[in-house]
Backbone:
């Protein structure tokens, strides 16, 4: 019986290529197959489906009970096995291939069966910048092709370079291994040009799959839409898969591209659309009820690959609610500061300054370029990893500015090449190399260190082979990794900022200020994999940009944590999917046109922990906060407002049962700082005294909660008066040390971490040092269910960092600093909500290129790019 069922199931699987599962079962019934045997076949099929459906990775949010039909690759498949062999030949390990196999199978299972009479599916796949999204959708295409999808349209960014790179990869990995299986509507050198005879591609006699890789350019997409409409009689039985690479760019809320994509889908009776992006901010703000490209059917959260360099790895991030800040890493010590005084020498500030602009090789740019040549030499000594070597210089969107860099960079190359026997130059190079390798030891990444003496003999060859390439929408000399190992300093703008992989990228000089999360994240071409040289990457940028990326890492982590909540709630689906995106004082979430469907997300502080981590360092500002803190303590101690005072051996002082109006008075006097963008600092939730005050008042009125507070002075045991900070007569604690991050704009300091988990339970009974975050919440719910906690930290103005903290430096404030933490109890019942007055960004203090949007519009609306 078992062998018979095995044979019958194999037949059933082959029949699935011709009919959907329900129709296939009917066919079996028509053939007179016994009902018991049909049920056994169905059970086996369901077991195989369950294996795909219940994979731990990737996690998915799926609309309704979508009929999953794909059970994975089968014997006889050709496209996926060929891709699998190609990846193995390129050095992919078994674990990486398995992860790709599983994640792509899950995506294919969410598509409609290609033999369904009609369908129009919309999905979204979330990845990470430079994390292998192209490989994932290539695998999805291979498996869909093996199962009967016929037409494959890949929307590949807005630049020719990315379109060509994507076409080359798909041809290499799909077409060349099975040339008899594929026809191409586009090639390496030409975007879509309408062929004369559609029947030759879609007629019943043509069994090949059809590949079309096009830019998101209005002229190109219009030609494609018109050609498909002319071939409508051939497309009724043509299942089509549309892959939208960089789906947040040009697709959402554009006047021509968005309607043209929907027009193409409308002309395909059987079509599935999957957007791939690492920055889904715009896609998740589309109105789900509108006739648009919102991912209404499924959202897939692709797993983060092992060894991937992401935002958090490089820049660190801030702690989220419920996290112990001391557990959050500062990121690798790979960011180098470009002072604001350098910017005018490498980037024009206004359009009027573009004409005739000539850049100068500043000290920081010189260091970056010299370090790049040293890295190339060291990589030649190692002889491992990617054979290419690239440096990115990105200062402006303007092509004439890019071109102006050629002469200074070529002059620097000639100068260094001709002076390699100069002792002064060699000493400069040695000092730079030893300083950098000392800050980021190779051993920390499992690499072998390379001495200066070992690499110096490689420098003549490096300088001789290095090219300076202007890669922009008007240049002819583009990055070309197809003709042997390349050593290149690439100067560019938008063509280098989206999707395009910069092979062997090790050094970036990036001072292009932009206005939106998604644009900024995508410009980080330094994210990705650095096999064989993980210790070498460096990024030169302004401290403000570094802080923006750190904030962005926090936003990204918080967004994905929200996504995880939906993924683990079976009652949720894409139409109820609404992640929160925290705002930033100087950045927009995405372009204004893409936020028309965004709403203000009301904030509640129930169960939250709020702490200050950014401070101005000038004396008048700090003295006002000192006065506010001393005024609070004096009010507590002078009028018997407090029922009990505790002093611990650790140096902390706790005042219990302080009336809420005393705390509110302090919040009115204390000056919060959110970082850069001073006008907008009030808008940051963590540092918004107005919102916090409003929340406390609402809780007092509506629930009688937060009427009483515990106020803690968190310090060290006093040793002598020089170490103390006195808050009131007889009330003093020893100052704490909080060194600042090495990347921080002039005039303010970011200490990143103020409170520890232990501090958040300082007013609780029991050994809080051993409690988990969850246990702390439970203890507060039992012991102090309606009492808030306010902590004050006297921070030493000097605050020297410990030697192990290489990414920290002395605080160097003009006066001692007062840090503030607040811990709110979780409400027993509905919480009160407060809403920010504004969600848009104030960009008045940010130096942005005023013509960046014009450049993108020209590319997507123009004749061609």
Residues:
């Amino acid at each position: 019986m078992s062998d018979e069922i095995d044979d019958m199931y194999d037949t059933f699987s082959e029949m699935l290529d011709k009919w959907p599962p329900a129709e296939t079962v009917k066919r079996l019934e028509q053939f007179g197959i016994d009902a018991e045997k049909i049920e056994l076949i169905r059970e086996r099929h369901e077991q195989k489906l369950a294996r795909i459906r219940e994979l731990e990775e990737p996690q998915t949010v799926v609309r309704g009970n979508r009929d999953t039909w794909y059970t994975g690759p089968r014997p006889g498949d050709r496209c996926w096995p060929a891709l699998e062999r190609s990846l193995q030949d390129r050095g992919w390990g078994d674990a990486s291939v398995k992860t790709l196999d599983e994640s792509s199978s899950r995506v294919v299972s969410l598509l409609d069966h290609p033999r369904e009479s009609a369908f129009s599916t919309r999905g979204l796949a979330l990845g990470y910048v430079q994390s292998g999204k192209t490989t994932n959708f290539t695998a999805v295409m291979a498996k869909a092709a093996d199962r009967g999808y016929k037409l494959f349209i890949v929307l590949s960014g807005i630049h020719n370079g990315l379109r060509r790179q994507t076409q080359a990869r798909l041809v290499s990995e799909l077409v060349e291994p099975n040339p008899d299986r594929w026809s191409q509507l586009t090639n390496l050198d030409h975007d879509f040009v309408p062929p004369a005879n559609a029947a030759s591609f879609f007629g019943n006699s043509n069994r090949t799959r059809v590949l079309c890789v096009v830019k998101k350019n209005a002229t190109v997409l219009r030609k494609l839409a018109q050609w498909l409409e002319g071939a409508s009689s051939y497309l009724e039985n043509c299942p089509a898969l549309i892959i939208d690479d960089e789906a947040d760019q040009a697709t959402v809320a554009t006047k021509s591209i968005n309607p043209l994509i929907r027009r193409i889908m409308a002309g395909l009776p059987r079509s599935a659309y999957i957007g791939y992006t690492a920055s889904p901010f715009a896609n998740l703000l589309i109105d789900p009820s509108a006739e648009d490209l919102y991912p209404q059917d499924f959202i897939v959260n692709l797993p983060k690959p092992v060894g991937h360099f992401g935002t958090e790895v490089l820049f660190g991030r801030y702690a989220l609610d419920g996290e112990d800040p001391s557990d959050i890493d500062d990121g690798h010590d790979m960011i180098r500061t470009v002072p604001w005084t350098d910017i005018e020498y490498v980037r024009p500030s206004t359009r009027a300054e573009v004409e005739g602009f000539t850049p100068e090789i500043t000290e920081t740019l010189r260091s970056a370029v010299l370090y790049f040549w040293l890295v190339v030499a060291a990589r030649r000594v190692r002889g491992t990893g990617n054979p290419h070597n690239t440096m990115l210089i990105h200062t402006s969107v303007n092509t004439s500015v890019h071109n102006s860099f050629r002469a200074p960079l070529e002059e620097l190359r000639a100068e260094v090449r001709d002076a390699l026997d100069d002792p002064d130059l060699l000493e400069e190079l040695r000092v730079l190399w030893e300083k950098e390798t000392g800050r980021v030891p190779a051993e920390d990444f499992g690499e072998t260190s390379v001495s200066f003496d070992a690499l110096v003999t490689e420098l003549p060859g490096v300088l001789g082979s290095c090219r300076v390439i202007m890669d922009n929408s008007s240049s002819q000399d583009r990055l070309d990794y197809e003709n042997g190992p390349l050593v290149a300093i690439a100067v560019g703008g938008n063509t280098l900022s989206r999707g395009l992989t910069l092979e062997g990228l090790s050094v970036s000089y990036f001072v292009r200020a932009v206005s939106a999360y998604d644009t900024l994240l995508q410009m980080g071409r330094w994210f990705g994999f650095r096999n064989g040289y993980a210790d070498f990457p460096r990024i030169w940028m302004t401290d403000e940009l570094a802080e923006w990326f750190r904030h962005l890492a926090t936003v990204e982590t918080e967004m994905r944590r929200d996504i995880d909540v939906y993924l683990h709630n079976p009652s949720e689906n894409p139409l109820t999917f609404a992640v929160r995106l925290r705002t930033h004082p100087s950045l927009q979430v995405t372009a204004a046109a893409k936020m028309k469907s965004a709403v203000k997300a009301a904030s509640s502080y129930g169960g939250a922990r709020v702490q200050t981590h950014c401070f101005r360092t000038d004396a008048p500002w700090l003295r006002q906060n000192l006065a506010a803190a001393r005024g609070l303590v004096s009010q507590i101690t002078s009028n018997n407002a407090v029922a009990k005072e505790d002093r611990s051996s650790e140096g902390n002082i706790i005042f219990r049962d302080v009336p809420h109006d005393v705390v509110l008075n302090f919040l009115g006097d204390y000056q919060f700082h959110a970082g850069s963008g001073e006008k907008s600092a009030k808008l940051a939730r963590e540092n918004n005294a107005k919102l916090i005050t409003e929340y406390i008042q609402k809780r007092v009125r509506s629930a009688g909660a937060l009427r009483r507070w515990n106020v803690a002075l968190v310090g060290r045991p006093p040793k002598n008066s020089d170490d103390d900070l006195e808050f009131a007569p007889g009330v003093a604690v020893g100052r704490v040390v909080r060194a600042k991050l090495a990347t921080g704009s002039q005039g303010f300091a970011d200490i990143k971490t103020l409170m520890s988990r232990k501090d958040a339970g300082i007013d609780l009974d029991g050994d809080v040092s051993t409690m988990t975050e969850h246990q702390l919440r439970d203890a507060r719910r039992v012991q102090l269910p309606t009492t808030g906690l306010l902590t004050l930290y006297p921070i030493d103005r000097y605050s020297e960092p410990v030697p192990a903290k290489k990414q920290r430096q002395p605080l160097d404030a003009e006066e001692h600093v007062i840090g503030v933490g607040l811990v709110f109890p979780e409400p027993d019942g509905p919480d009160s909500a407060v809403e920010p007055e504004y969600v848009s960004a104030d960009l008045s203090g940010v130096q942005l290129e005023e013509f960046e949007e014009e450049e993108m519009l020209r590319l997507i609306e123009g004749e061609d790019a």
